Amino acid sequence: MFLVELVMQGVRRFKEPARLRFQSGFNFVQAGSEAGKTTAVDAIQRLLFPSGDASRFASLLPRKAPEASRGALVVYSGDNAYYRVIQDFTRQGVNLSK
What is the value of pTM for the model shown? Predict the structure, then answer.
């Protein structure tokens, strides 16, 4: 399995949709302070390992409550299929599609 794409909207400082596309193999992310590197890692962790504990990832929500705070992660698996995990961080809803 490898990551293909991460999309975030309403997550911390990302009010508008932000996309991070990954290449096969090793990916290196370099950016300045406050650019969103940790936000991206935290969102990936939340999408791969959803938890019913709201306080665990409450820091993903921006200080000013947005109408929607969500993330999507596309992964390519060993069975030659793409899967998309979409999670609404505000309502804690999770959807998995192939």
Answer: 0.85
